[in-house]
Amino acid sequence: MQRPLLALLMIIPLAALADLEISDAWIKNLPASVPVRAGYLTLRNLTKKSVTIVGAISPGFASVEIHRSVSQDGMARMEAVPKLQIEGGTTVRLEPGGLHLMMMQPAQPTSPGELYRITFEYADGSRQSLQMEVRK
Amino acid sequence: MNKSSIALVALVALVAGFSISWFIGSNKPVELEAGTWFGEQARALPEFELVDQNNQPLTRDRLKGKWNLIFFGYTHCPDICPTSLQTLADMMKAIDDPDVVDAVRVYFVSVDPERDTPEVLASYVSYFNPGFVGATAAMGQLHPLTRSLGIAHEFRNRTTDNPAYDVDHSAAIVLVNPAAEFAGLFGAPQDPLALARDMTRIVEYN
Protein backbone atom coordinates (compact mmCIF):
# COMPACT_ATOMS: atom_id res chain seq x y z
CA MET A 1 0.00 0.00 0.00
CA GLN A 2 2.80 2.38 0.82
CA ARG A 3 4.53 2.37 -2.54
CA PRO A 4 1.67 3.57 -4.75
CA LEU A 5 0.95 6.28 -2.21
CA LEU A 6 4.55 7.39 -2.23
CA ALA A 7 4.60 7.39 -6.02
CA LEU A 8 1.42 9.46 -6.07
CA LEU A 9 2.88 11.96 -3.63
CA MET A 10 5.89 12.37 -5.87
CA ILE A 11 3.82 12.83 -9.01
CA ILE A 12 1.43 15.43 -7.67
CA PRO A 13 3.97 18.11 -6.84
CA LEU A 14 5.72 17.62 -10.18
CA ALA A 15 2.47 17.89 -12.09
CA ALA A 16 1.50 21.04 -10.23
CA LEU A 17 4.70 22.65 -11.26
CA ALA A 18 4.71 23.30 -14.99
CA ASP A 19 4.57 27.02 -14.17
CA LEU A 20 8.28 27.66 -13.92
CA GLU A 21 10.35 27.06 -17.03
CA ILE A 22 13.97 26.28 -16.24
CA SER A 23 16.55 26.40 -19.01
CA ASP A 24 20.28 26.68 -19.70
CA ALA A 25 21.12 24.81 -16.50
CA TRP A 26 24.83 24.06 -16.13
CA ILE A 27 27.58 23.58 -13.59
CA LYS A 28 31.02 25.15 -14.00
CA ASN A 29 33.58 22.37 -13.81
CA LEU A 30 36.61 22.78 -11.53
CA PRO A 31 39.52 20.51 -10.64
CA ALA A 32 39.00 17.84 -7.99
CA SER A 33 41.01 19.83 -5.42
CA VAL A 34 38.19 22.38 -5.17
CA PRO A 35 35.27 21.18 -2.99
CA VAL A 36 32.67 23.56 -4.40
CA ARG A 37 30.99 24.23 -7.76
CA ALA A 38 28.78 27.01 -9.04
CA GLY A 39 25.56 26.20 -10.89
CA TYR A 40 23.75 28.52 -13.27
CA LEU A 41 20.31 28.49 -14.88
CA THR A 42 17.48 30.62 -16.15
CA LEU A 43 14.11 30.64 -14.33
CA ARG A 44 11.13 31.89 -16.26
CA ASN A 45 7.84 32.31 -14.46
CA LEU A 46 5.09 31.75 -17.02
CA THR A 47 2.26 32.47 -14.59
CA LYS A 48 0.88 35.66 -13.12
CA LYS A 49 1.66 34.76 -9.52
CA SER A 50 5.05 34.80 -7.88
CA VAL A 51 6.96 31.59 -7.22
CA THR A 52 9.51 31.29 -4.41
CA ILE A 53 12.34 28.78 -4.24
CA VAL A 54 13.04 27.84 -0.63
CA GLY A 55 15.52 25.01 -1.08
CA ALA A 56 17.53 22.85 -3.44
CA ILE A 57 19.11 19.42 -3.19
CA SER A 58 21.27 17.34 -5.47
CA PRO A 59 22.35 13.76 -4.79
CA GLY A 60 25.80 14.60 -6.17
CA PHE A 61 26.51 17.29 -3.56
CA ALA A 62 26.42 17.50 0.22
CA SER A 63 24.40 20.71 0.02
CA VAL A 64 23.11 23.27 -2.46
CA GLU A 65 22.32 26.87 -1.60
CA ILE A 66 21.41 29.92 -3.63
CA HIS A 67 24.03 32.62 -3.27
CA ARG A 68 24.62 36.00 -4.77
CA SER A 69 27.99 37.55 -5.56
CA VAL A 70 27.78 41.20 -4.66
CA SER A 71 30.29 43.92 -5.25
CA GLN A 72 30.56 46.67 -2.67
CA ASP A 73 33.29 49.31 -2.61
CA GLY A 74 35.26 47.21 -5.09
CA MET A 75 35.06 44.12 -2.86
CA ALA A 76 33.38 40.96 -4.05
CA ARG A 77 31.60 38.90 -1.46
CA MET A 78 28.94 36.26 -1.34
CA GLU A 79 25.67 36.36 0.47
CA ALA A 80 23.19 33.55 0.95
CA VAL A 81 19.74 33.93 -0.62
CA PRO A 82 17.53 31.64 1.51
CA LYS A 83 14.43 32.46 -0.53
CA LEU A 84 14.46 33.39 -4.19
CA GLN A 85 11.22 34.95 -5.38
CA ILE A 86 10.42 35.02 -9.07
CA GLU A 87 7.57 37.41 -9.81
CA GLY A 88 4.85 36.37 -12.23
CA GLY A 89 5.80 36.94 -15.85
CA THR A 90 9.46 37.62 -15.07
CA THR A 91 12.75 35.86 -15.74
CA VAL A 92 15.54 35.47 -13.20
CA ARG A 93 18.97 34.43 -14.40
CA LEU A 94 21.54 32.71 -12.25
CA GLU A 95 24.71 33.59 -14.12
CA PRO A 96 28.44 34.09 -13.52
CA GLY A 97 29.17 37.06 -11.28
CA GLY A 98 25.67 37.28 -9.80
CA LEU A 99 23.08 34.85 -8.47
CA HIS A 100 24.33 31.27 -8.53
CA LEU A 101 23.84 27.87 -6.96
CA MET A 102 26.58 27.16 -4.46
CA MET A 103 27.01 23.38 -4.72
CA MET A 104 29.17 22.13 -1.90
CA GLN A 105 31.27 19.00 -1.55
CA PRO A 106 30.71 16.99 -4.71
CA ALA A 107 30.52 13.28 -3.87
CA GLN A 108 32.97 12.60 -6.70
CA PRO A 109 35.18 14.72 -8.93
CA THR A 110 33.08 16.32 -11.67
CA SER A 111 33.90 16.32 -15.35
CA PRO A 112 32.45 18.09 -18.39
CA GLY A 113 29.46 16.37 -19.99
CA GLU A 114 28.19 14.75 -16.77
CA LEU A 115 24.61 15.36 -15.74
CA TYR A 116 23.56 16.09 -12.16
CA ARG A 117 20.00 15.94 -10.97
CA ILE A 118 18.83 18.87 -8.90
CA THR A 119 15.49 19.32 -7.17
CA PHE A 120 14.09 22.70 -6.20
CA GLU A 121 11.59 23.08 -3.42
CA TYR A 122 9.04 25.86 -3.59
CA ALA A 123 7.27 27.78 -0.86
CA ASP A 124 3.98 26.00 -1.59
CA GLY A 125 5.67 22.66 -0.88
CA SER A 126 5.89 21.57 -4.51
CA ARG A 127 9.10 20.39 -6.13
CA GLN A 128 10.70 20.43 -9.53
CA SER A 129 13.62 18.35 -10.74
CA LEU A 130 15.92 18.80 -13.68
CA GLN A 131 19.34 17.81 -14.97
CA MET A 132 22.29 20.17 -14.97
CA GLU A 133 25.17 19.59 -17.33
CA VAL A 134 28.76 20.05 -16.21
CA ARG A 135 30.63 22.33 -18.60
CA LYS A 136 34.30 23.12 -18.93
CA MET B 1 77.60 79.19 -29.51
CA ASN B 2 74.91 81.56 -30.65
CA LYS B 3 71.43 81.75 -29.25
CA SER B 4 69.77 79.66 -31.96
CA SER B 5 72.22 76.78 -31.62
CA ILE B 6 71.72 76.79 -27.85
CA ALA B 7 68.00 76.63 -28.45
CA LEU B 8 68.52 73.79 -30.92
CA VAL B 9 70.68 71.81 -28.47
CA ALA B 10 68.09 72.38 -25.77
CA LEU B 11 65.34 71.24 -28.08
CA VAL B 12 67.25 68.11 -29.11
CA ALA B 13 67.97 67.31 -25.46
CA LEU B 14 64.34 67.83 -24.57
CA VAL B 15 63.09 65.58 -27.37
CA ALA B 16 65.72 62.95 -26.59
CA GLY B 17 64.80 63.04 -22.91
CA PHE B 18 61.13 62.64 -23.68
CA SER B 19 61.85 59.84 -26.13
CA ILE B 20 63.95 57.95 -23.62
CA SER B 21 61.40 58.22 -20.85
CA TRP B 22 58.76 57.33 -23.43
CA PHE B 23 60.48 54.07 -24.33
CA ILE B 24 61.88 52.89 -21.03
CA GLY B 25 58.85 53.90 -19.02
CA SER B 26 56.41 51.53 -20.76
CA ASN B 27 53.78 54.09 -19.90
CA LYS B 28 52.83 55.56 -23.25
CA PRO B 29 49.26 56.76 -23.30
CA VAL B 30 46.90 53.96 -24.29
CA GLU B 31 43.15 54.26 -24.53
CA LEU B 32 41.71 51.17 -22.82
CA GLU B 33 38.16 49.99 -23.38
CA ALA B 34 37.98 47.62 -20.39
CA GLY B 35 40.21 49.24 -17.81
CA THR B 36 42.11 52.22 -16.49
CA TRP B 37 45.59 53.06 -17.72
CA PHE B 38 47.70 54.93 -15.17
CA GLY B 39 50.26 56.29 -17.66
CA GLU B 40 52.75 58.51 -15.86
CA GLN B 41 51.01 57.70 -12.57
CA ALA B 42 52.33 54.12 -12.71
CA ARG B 43 54.19 53.34 -9.51
CA ALA B 44 56.83 50.81 -8.53
CA LEU B 45 55.73 47.73 -6.62
CA PRO B 46 57.33 47.08 -3.23
CA GLU B 47 59.63 44.09 -2.83
CA PHE B 48 57.72 40.90 -2.07
CA GLU B 49 58.24 37.18 -2.05
CA LEU B 50 55.44 34.72 -2.70
CA VAL B 51 55.67 31.00 -3.45
CA ASP B 52 54.37 29.75 -6.79
CA GLN B 53 52.63 26.46 -7.63
CA ASN B 54 56.02 24.80 -8.21
CA ASN B 55 57.32 25.96 -4.81
CA GLN B 56 59.51 28.54 -6.56
CA PRO B 57 59.77 32.11 -5.27
CA LEU B 58 57.65 34.70 -7.05
CA THR B 59 59.31 38.06 -6.58
CA ARG B 60 58.98 41.56 -8.03
CA ASP B 61 61.97 40.86 -10.28
CA ARG B 62 60.21 37.90 -11.85
CA LEU B 63 57.51 40.24 -13.15
CA LYS B 64 60.03 42.32 -15.06
CA GLY B 65 60.15 42.11 -18.83
CA LYS B 66 56.52 41.02 -19.25
CA TRP B 67 53.08 42.55 -19.07
CA ASN B 68 51.54 40.93 -16.02
CA LEU B 69 47.84 40.51 -15.20
CA ILE B 70 47.28 39.59 -11.56
CA PHE B 71 44.01 38.41 -10.09
CA PHE B 72 43.61 37.93 -6.35
CA GLY B 73 41.17 35.32 -5.05
CA TYR B 74 40.94 31.85 -3.53
CA THR B 75 40.17 28.41 -4.94
CA HIS B 76 37.15 27.76 -2.68
CA CYS B 77 35.45 30.76 -4.30
CA PRO B 78 32.78 29.18 -6.53
CA ASP B 79 31.61 32.04 -8.72
CA ILE B 80 33.79 35.15 -9.09
CA CYS B 81 37.21 33.47 -9.20
CA PRO B 82 36.48 30.73 -11.76
CA THR B 83 34.62 33.32 -13.83
CA SER B 84 37.57 35.73 -13.81
CA LEU B 85 40.13 33.00 -14.52
CA GLN B 86 38.00 31.61 -17.34
CA THR B 87 37.77 35.16 -18.71
CA LEU B 88 41.57 35.45 -18.61
CA ALA B 89 41.93 32.02 -20.28
CA ASP B 90 39.47 33.08 -22.98
CA MET B 91 41.38 36.36 -23.35
CA MET B 92 44.63 34.47 -24.02
CA LYS B 93 42.88 32.36 -26.66
CA ALA B 94 41.43 35.48 -28.28
CA ILE B 95 44.79 37.25 -28.73
CA ASP B 96 45.84 36.71 -32.37
CA ASP B 97 49.39 38.03 -32.25
CA PRO B 98 51.81 35.39 -30.86
CA ASP B 99 54.21 38.16 -29.79
CA VAL B 100 51.46 39.61 -27.61
CA VAL B 101 50.67 36.18 -26.15
CA ASP B 102 54.35 35.79 -25.34
CA ALA B 103 54.51 39.21 -23.69
CA VAL B 104 51.56 38.62 -21.34
CA ARG B 105 51.68 36.63 -18.09
CA VAL B 106 48.67 35.78 -15.93
CA TYR B 107 48.96 35.30 -12.18
CA PHE B 108 46.41 34.04 -9.68
CA VAL B 109 47.44 35.09 -6.19
CA SER B 110 45.53 33.32 -3.43
CA VAL B 111 44.61 35.37 -0.37
CA ASP B 112 43.73 32.09 1.40
CA PRO B 113 47.18 30.56 1.94
CA GLU B 114 46.13 27.92 4.47
CA ARG B 115 43.78 26.09 2.12
CA ASP B 116 45.55 27.04 -1.13
CA THR B 117 48.82 25.18 -0.91
CA PRO B 118 51.13 25.18 -3.94
CA GLU B 119 49.76 21.71 -4.84
CA VAL B 120 46.16 22.96 -4.80
CA LEU B 121 47.15 26.03 -6.82
CA ALA B 122 48.99 23.87 -9.38
CA SER B 123 45.90 21.86 -10.32
CA TYR B 124 43.70 24.97 -10.12
CA VAL B 125 45.56 27.37 -12.41
CA SER B 126 46.58 24.72 -14.94
CA TYR B 127 42.91 23.77 -15.28
CA PHE B 128 42.31 27.18 -16.88
CA ASN B 129 45.59 27.57 -18.79
CA PRO B 130 48.84 25.61 -18.40
CA GLY B 131 50.77 28.88 -18.64
CA PHE B 132 49.02 30.57 -15.72
CA VAL B 133 51.01 31.00 -12.52
CA GLY B 134 49.45 30.47 -9.10
CA ALA B 135 51.10 31.86 -6.00
CA THR B 136 50.46 32.68 -2.37
CA ALA B 137 52.27 33.48 0.87
CA ALA B 138 51.60 33.98 4.53
CA MET B 139 49.52 37.07 5.29
CA GLY B 140 52.59 38.98 6.47
CA GLN B 141 54.06 38.61 2.99
CA LEU B 142 50.82 39.15 1.09
CA HIS B 143 49.78 42.35 2.81
CA PRO B 144 52.52 44.70 1.58
CA LEU B 145 51.78 43.61 -1.98
CA THR B 146 47.98 43.74 -1.78
CA ARG B 147 48.07 47.05 0.08
CA SER B 148 50.30 48.64 -2.54
CA LEU B 149 47.84 47.55 -5.23
CA GLY B 150 44.73 48.64 -3.35
CA ILE B 151 43.51 45.04 -3.19
CA ALA B 152 41.39 44.42 -0.10
CA HIS B 153 40.74 40.96 1.30
CA GLU B 154 39.37 39.61 4.53
CA PHE B 155 38.16 36.31 5.93
CA ARG B 156 34.50 35.95 6.75
CA ASN B 157 33.21 33.58 9.42
CA ARG B 158 36.53 31.80 9.60
CA THR B 159 36.41 29.67 12.73
CA THR B 160 37.93 26.32 13.59
CA ASP B 161 34.61 24.54 13.05
CA ASN B 162 33.85 26.24 9.72
CA PRO B 163 36.18 24.87 7.04
CA ALA B 164 33.89 26.32 4.35
CA TYR B 165 34.60 29.97 5.17
CA ASP B 166 34.57 32.67 2.49
CA VAL B 167 37.13 35.32 1.72
CA ASP B 168 35.85 38.71 0.58
CA HIS B 169 38.24 40.19 -1.93
CA SER B 170 38.68 42.82 -4.62
CA ALA B 171 37.71 41.38 -7.99
CA ALA B 172 39.73 43.75 -10.17
CA ILE B 173 42.58 42.53 -12.38
CA VAL B 174 45.83 44.37 -11.73
CA LEU B 175 48.17 45.29 -14.60
CA VAL B 176 51.91 45.37 -13.85
CA ASN B 177 54.19 46.64 -16.61
CA PRO B 178 57.61 45.23 -17.65
CA ALA B 179 59.32 47.62 -15.23
CA ALA B 180 57.35 45.98 -12.36
CA GLU B 181 55.19 49.06 -11.90
CA PHE B 182 51.48 49.04 -11.08
CA ALA B 183 50.32 50.36 -14.46
CA GLY B 184 46.58 49.83 -14.70
CA LEU B 185 43.44 48.17 -13.46
CA PHE B 186 40.63 46.20 -15.08
CA GLY B 187 37.50 46.37 -12.95
CA ALA B 188 34.95 43.55 -12.70
CA PRO B 189 33.08 42.19 -14.55
CA GLN B 190 35.59 41.64 -17.33
CA ASP B 191 34.98 40.78 -20.96
CA PRO B 192 37.57 38.43 -22.55
CA LEU B 193 37.46 40.03 -25.99
CA ALA B 194 37.79 43.57 -24.66
CA LEU B 195 40.70 42.43 -22.47
CA ALA B 196 42.35 40.77 -25.48
CA ARG B 197 42.05 43.97 -27.52
CA ASP B 198 43.38 46.07 -24.62
CA MET B 199 46.38 43.82 -24.01
CA THR B 200 47.15 43.80 -27.74
CA ARG B 201 47.06 47.61 -27.76
CA ILE B 202 49.22 47.87 -24.67
CA VAL B 203 51.90 45.47 -25.90
CA GLU B 204 51.97 46.79 -29.45
CA TYR B 205 52.07 50.49 -28.49
CA ASN B 206 54.70 50.17 -25.79
Task: Provide tags for this entry.
heterodimer; A: mainly beta; Immunoglobulin-like; ten-stranded mixed sheet; 10 strands; about 55% strand; B: Glutaredoxin; two-stranded antiparallel sheet; elongated
What does this entry look like structurally?
The complex is a heterodimer of chains A (about 140) and B (about 210). Chain A has a single domain, classed as Immunoglobulin-like. In chain A, about 10% of the residues lie in helices and about 55% in strands. Chain A contains one helix and ten strands; from the N terminus they run H-E-E-E-E-E-E-E-E-E-E. Chain A has one helix at about 1-15; strands at about 20-30, 35-45, 50-55, 60-70, 75-80, 85, 90-95, 100-105, 115-120, 125-135. In chain A, strands 1, 2, 3, 4, 5, 6, 7, 8, 9 and 10 form a ten-stranded mixed beta sheet that branches. The longest helix of chain A has 14 residues, at about 1-15. By secondary structure, chain B is an alpha+beta fold. Chain B has one domain (about 30-205): Glutaredoxin (3-Layer(aba) Sandwich). Chain B is about 40% helix and about 25% strand. Chain B has helices spanning about 5-25, 60-65, 80-95, 100-105, 120-130, 140-150, 190-205, and strands spanning about 35, 45, 50, 55-60, 65-75, 105-110, 135, 155, 165-170, 175, 180-185. In chain B, strands 1, 2, 3, 4, 5, 6, 7, 10 and 11 form a nine-stranded mixed beta sheet that branches. A two-stranded antiparallel sheet of chain B has the order 8-9. Chain B is elongated, with a radius of gyration of 20 Å. Chain B starts with a helix and ends with a helix. In chain B, about 40% of the residues are buried. Residues about 20-25 of chain B have low confidence and may be disordered. The interface of A and B includes residues 78 and 100 of A. Strand 5 of chain A pairs antiparallel with strand 9 of chain B, so a sheet runs across the interface.
